[in-house]
Amino acid sequence: MLAAITAIISTLCYASQCYVSPFGRCRKCHGKGRIPQRRGTRYCRRCDATGLRLRLGRHVWNHVRRLYHDR
Which domain of life is it from (predicted)? Predict the structure, then answer.
């Protein structure tokens, strides 16, 4: 019972965080937009050098919303 309540609360907290702040820091470049190499740095291809990525929960929300509107 306690595990189910904890899971529901954590899911609601994550969903509210995805709604308020849909972008998180990029995992590859840690939000810097550049990746260090031996000879200088290069732009991060995963986030297109913005340092931001769309959160997984927001990505799922956008997909479900798109399916609903395309009906």
Answer: Bacteria
